[in-house]
C-alpha cells in the first residue's frame, strides 16, 4: 500500500525467518511473517544458544539511531543507565589489574559491551560524553594524566586494540596498564635548583658542536643562522665567565638558544643522551619563564630548539607544551602570514635574511606540530585557513660537500599531507564509508607522488644508498613518511580484514586507488618493516642520529604485533616476530637508559613474552600458506551471518574507527556482534 510504513530490517532475525531466509522486521510482539502464519515469534541469541534474543534494528556504535528515535522520559533525563548484570565482558581480564591498582579506567575499558538489565544510576555530571573521542592516560598516582585523541594513529590505541584481540586468551595479561605508566616520564622534566648558569664549552669543543649541529640537525630544523651563533658565543662567553656582568632581558633567549644547540649537538655527537647534554638542557629549561616574558622571534627560536631537544629524549609531553607556546608567540608575531616587509626581527642575530628566517621558523613549528599531532592525537593549534606563509629557499647542509637534497622542503610537503590525514581522522561530521575510503585513496596517492620527487638513492619505500654523512637525514624523512602511511591505513589494522577489502572493491570500483586500498593491512605492515629496517641500516652504515624518536620504532613494533596476530598463516610471521622481539628489546634498553618508568619497561617485556608465546603456538595450528586471506575476499557476506544488513555495517564503520576505541560500548547483544565483527574481534 502506498501509505503503509515499511518496517525496518533488524540485525538478527527470528528463528523462523532465519530458517527460511526471509526478511524479518522489528514488529512486536511478533514479526510480520510469523503473524501472517499464526506462528509464535521466537528469537534465539546467536552467541548464547538456548537464551532468548532480541530483534532490534542495528545502530551505530554508540546507539545514536536508537537515541534519536526513542526520547528518554523526563525522570530519566538526569541519570545515565549502565548495565549491572550484563554477560561477561570480553575485556574482563583487562579490567581486573587496573581496578586492583585503583587507577581511573580509560573510557574504552568501562563496560565496553554492557547490556541494559539492572541499571545503576550515575549522575548527569558524571555521564560520559556520547561523542567524546578523547582517552585519558594516567598512572598509578592518579595525579598525572594526559589526553590523547583517538582519531590519529597513537601507539596507545594500538596497545588497547592488541589487548582487545587477546581478551579471550587466558595466557594474555593486559599490557595497556603498564604503558600508562610512561605518562610521567613523557610530561615531566625534573629540574635542579640552579644557583649559577653553566659556562659555554671551550672554543674547540664549541666549534665541534657547531659542525655537528649544522651538518646533522640544521638541514632538518634550520632555525638559526650560523654567523649569528658565532657572534652570540663571542658576546655571551665573557658574560658567563665573569659571573658579574648583568644579563639583559633579551640575552636570555639567546642564551637558551646556545644551551639547546650544545645539548642537542653533544647528544648527536655521542649517539646517545649525555650528561653534558642533560646539564645544558636543564639550564635552558630553567630559563623558560624568560622566554615567555619576552615573546619575540628570538624566544620562538629558543622554544623550538628546546622542544627539539626534549623530543630527542622521548619527552614528547613536555616538548608538546613548549611547542604550543612557540606556536602562539609565532602567530602573535605574524610568522604564519606572508608579510612582504616583516618588522618582527629587532635584535642581534636575526637581522640577516629576515624574510627567509621567518618562513623557516614557522615551517619548523608546523613540521613539529603535525608530526606530534599525528602521534598523539592532540588537537592542533594551527588553523590552515589562516596560514599563507611562503616556502623558504631550499635548505642545504652547511657542512656536507657536493649535492644535498632539500630535506626541509620535503618535510614541509609531508607535513601538509599529514594535516590531511589528521583532518580525515578527526573530522566529526557524518561521512559515509565510501567518502572515507575515497579520501584515504587520494591522500595515499599524494604520499606516493611525494616519494616520487625524491632522488632514487634516498626515496622513501626503497633502500637508502646515499653517503654516510647524509644517511641520517634520509632516514629521518623515510621514518616520517612511513609513519604517515601507517596512520593513514590504520583502519585496516583495527577492522575486519575481509569485510574491509570487500567494501573497498565495491565502493572504490573504477578508482585508481582501489588496488592499493584493498591491501591497506599489507601496506601498514610493510611500512612498519621499513621503519625498523631503515633504522637498523642507519645504525650500521652511519653514526646514527638522535633526530629519530623511539615513538616511531614503538609504532612499528605495535603495528607488526597486530599484523602477526591477525594474519597467523603468513609466511613472514617468523621474521616479523623476530623483528618485533629484537627491536622491542633494543628500545626497552634505550628507554631504561633514558630513565623511563620501570612499569613501562615491564610492559614491553610482557609484550615480547606473550607475543612470542602466541605466535609459536598458533604456528602449530596454522601452517604457513600464501593465501592467508579468504580466496573470495570480495564475497558480500565476508563471514558474517547473512541476517545482518550489510548497509548497516557501512553506516556503523565510519564512527567506529574515526572515534577509535574510547568509550567503546553497545546497547544489546546484536550490536555486540556487529561491533565485534567490524573490529575483527569475532
Describe the structure.
The chain has helices at 15-19, 32-36, 64-69, 92-100, 155-165, 176-180, 183-187, 203-217, 226-242, 251-270, 275-286, 288-293, 297-312, 316-333, 354-376, 407-426, 433-452, 468-488, 490-493, 497-507, 514-518, 520-541, 550-566, 573-594, 598-621, 646-658, 669-678, and strands at 79-82, 120-123, 134-138, 145-149. Helix 10 (251-270) packs antiparallel against helix 11 and helix 17 packs antiparallel against helix 18 (468-488). It is elongated and about 100 Å long. Among the domains are: 1-57, Zn(2)-C6 fungal-type DNA-binding domain (CD2-Gal4, Irregular); 61-152 and 640-682, no CATH class; 196-396, no CATH class. The chain has a two-stranded antiparallel ribbon with strand order 1-2. The two termini are 40 Å apart. With 682 residues, it is mainly α. Keywords: DNA-binding, Metal-binding, Nucleus, Transcription, Transcription regulation. InterPro entries: AtrR-like (IPR050987), XnlR_reg_dom (IPR007219), Zn2-C6_fun-type_DNA-bd_sf (IPR036864), Zn2Cys6_DnaBD (IPR001138).
Quick recap of the structure?
With 682 residues, the protein is mostly helical.
Q: Helices, strands, pairings?
A:
Blueprint: H1 15-19, H2 32-36, H3 64-69, E1 79-82, H4 92-100, E2 120-123, E3 134-138, E4 145-149, H5 155-165, H6 176-180, H7 183-187, H8 203-217, H9 226-242, H10 251-270, H11 275-286, H12 288-293, H13 297-312, H14 316-333, H15 354-376, H16 407-426, H17 433-452, H18 468-488, H19 490-493, H20 497-507, H21 514-518, H22 520-541, H23 550-566, H24 573-594, H25 598-621, H26 646-658, H27 669-678
Organism: Aspergillus versicolor CBS 583.65
Protein name: Zn(2)-C6 fungal-type domain-containing protein
GO biological process, one term: DNA-templated transcription
Amino acid at each position: 500500500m502506498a501509505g503503509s510504513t515499511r518496517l525496518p530490517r533488524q540485525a538478527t532475525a527470528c528463528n523462523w525467518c532465519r530458517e527460511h531466509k526471509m526478511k524479518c522486521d522489528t514488529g512486536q510482539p511478533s514479526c510480520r511473517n510469523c503473524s501472517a502464519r499464526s506462528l509464535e515469534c521466537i528469537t534465539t541469541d546467536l552467541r548464547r544458544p538456548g537464551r532468548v534474543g532480541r530483534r532490534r534494528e542495528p545502530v551505530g556504535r554508540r546507539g545514536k539511531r536508537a537515541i534519536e528515535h526513542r526520547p528518554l522520559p523526563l525522570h530519566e533525563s538526569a541519570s545515565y543507565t549502565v548495565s549491572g548484570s550484563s554477560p561477561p565482558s570480553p575485556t574482563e581480564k583487562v579490567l581486573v589489574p587496573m581496578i586492583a591498582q585503583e587507577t581511573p579506567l580509560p573510557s574504552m575499558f568501562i563496560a565496553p559491551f554492557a547490556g541494559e538489565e539492572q541499571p545503576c544510576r550515575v549522575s548527569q555530571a558524571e555521564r560520559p560524553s556520547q561523542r567524546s573521542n578523547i582517552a585519558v592516560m594516567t598512572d598509578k598516582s592518579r595525579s598525572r594524566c594526559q589526553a590523547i585523541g583517538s582519531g590519529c594513529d597513537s601507539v596507545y590505541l594500538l596497545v588497547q586494540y592488541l589487548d582487545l584481540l587477546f581478551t579471550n586468551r587466558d595466557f594474555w595479561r593486559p599490557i595497556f596498564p603498564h604503558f600508562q605508566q610512561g605518562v610521567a616520564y613523557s610530561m615531566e622534566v625534573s629540574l635542579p635548583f640552579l644557583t649559577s648558569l653553566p659556562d659555554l664549552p671551550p672554543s674547540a669543543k664549541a666549534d665541534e658542536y657547531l659542525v655537528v649541529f649544522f651538518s646533522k640537525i640544521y638541514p632538518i630544523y634550520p632555525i638559526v643562522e650560523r654567523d649569528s651563533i658565532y657572534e652570540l658565543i663571542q658576546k655571551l662567553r665573557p658574560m658567563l665567565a665573569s659571573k658579574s656582568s648583568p644579563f639583559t632581558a633579551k640575552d636570555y633567549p639567546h642564551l637558551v638558544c646556545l644551551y639547546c644547540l650544545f645539548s642537542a649537538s653533544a647528544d648527536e655527537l655521542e649517539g646517545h643522551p649525555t650528561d653534558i647534554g642533560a646539564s645544558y638542557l636543564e639550564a635552558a629549561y630553567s630559563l623558560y619563564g624568560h622566554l615567555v616574558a619576552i615573546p619575540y622571534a628570538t624566544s620562538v627560536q629558543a622554544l623550538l630548539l628546546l622542544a627539539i631537544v626534549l623530543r630527542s629524549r622521548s619527552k614528547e609531553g613536555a616538548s608538546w607544551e613548549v611547542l604550543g607556546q612557540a606556536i602562539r608567540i609565532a602567530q602573535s608575531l605574524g610568522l604564519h602570514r606572508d608579510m612582504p616587509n616583516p618588522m618582527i626581527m629587532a635584535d642581534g642575530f636575526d637581522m640577516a635574511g629576515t624574510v627567509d628566517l621567518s618562513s623557516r621558523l614557522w615551517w619548523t613549528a608546523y613540521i613539529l606540530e603535525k608530526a606530534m599531532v599525528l602521534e598523539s592525537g592532540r588537537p592542533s593549534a594551527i588553523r590552515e585557513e589562516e596560514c599563507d606563509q611562503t616556502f623558504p629557499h631550499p635548505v642545504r647542509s652547511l657542512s656536507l660537500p657536493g649535492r644535498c637534497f632539500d630535506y626541509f622542503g620535503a618535510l614541509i610537503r609531508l607535513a601538509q599531507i599529514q594535516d590531511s590525514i589528521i583532518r580525515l581522522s578527526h573530522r566529526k561530521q557524518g561521512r559515509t564509508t565510501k567518502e572515507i575510503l575515497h579520501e584515504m585513496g587520494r591522500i595515499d596517492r599524494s604520499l606516493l607522488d611525494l616519494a616520487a620527487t625524491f632522488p632514487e638513492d634516498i626515496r622513501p619505500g626503497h633502500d637508502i644508498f646515499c653517503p654516510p654523512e647524509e644517511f641520517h637525514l634520509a632516514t629521518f624523512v623515510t621514518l616520517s613518511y612511513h609513519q604517515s602511511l601507517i596512520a593513514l591505513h590504520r583502519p585496516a589494522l583495527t577492522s575486519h580484514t575481509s569485510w574491509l577489502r570487500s567494501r573497498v572493491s565495491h565502493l572504490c570500483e573504477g578508482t585508481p586507488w582501489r588496488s592499493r586500498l584493498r591491501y591497506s593491512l599489507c601496506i601498514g605492515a610493510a611500512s612498519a618493516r621499513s621503519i625498523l629496517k631503515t633504522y637498523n641500516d642507519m645504525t650500521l652504515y652511519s653514526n646514527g642520529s638522535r633526530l629519530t624518536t623511539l615513538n616511531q620504532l614503538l609504532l612499528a613494533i605495535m603495528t607488526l604485533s597486530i599484523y602477526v596476530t591477525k594474519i597467523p598463516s603468513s609466511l613472514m610471521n617468523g621474521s616479523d616476530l623476530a623483528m618485533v622481539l629484537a627491536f622491542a628489546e633494543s628500545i626497552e634498553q634505550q628507554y631504561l637508559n633514558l630513565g623511563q618508568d620501570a612499569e613501562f619497561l615491564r610492559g614491553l617485556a610482557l609484550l615480547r613474552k606473550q607475543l612470542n608465546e602466541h605466535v609459536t603456538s598458533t604456528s602449530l595450528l596454522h601452517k604457513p600458506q600464501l593465501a592467508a586471506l579468504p580466496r573470495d575476499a570480495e564475497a558480500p557476506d565476508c563471514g558474517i551471518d547473512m541476517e545482518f544488513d550489510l548497509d548497516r555495517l557501512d553506516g556503523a564503520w565510519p564512527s567506529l574507527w574515526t572515534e577509535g576505541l574510547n568509550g567503546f560500548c553497545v546497547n544489546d547483544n546484536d550490536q555486540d556482534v556487529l561491533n565485534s565483527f567490524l573490529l575483527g574481534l569475532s
